[in-house]
Amino acid sequence: MNAQTDLHEIALGLAREAMLTDAASGCSLGAWRDGVLEICRKVGIPEPDDVVAWVSGGKASDADVADWSRQFSVR
Asked: What is the pLDDT of residues 16-32, one digit of tens each?
């Protein structure tokens, strides 16, 4: 792996951990998305065009989110 790939994997791992933590705490989808974008900026990788698709590996999309202010959960 190269350094950029390593950074991508670090950011993706942090984003997935944030998803679990934020879902357990009752965070809104929008707050989680903002956190993921902040993780990308801090790690130094480009922000994904579709945050949900990036974190879910393409199983879902930002387009599937009707209301970013709603609380979410992970099942």
From this structure: 999 889 888 889 999 99
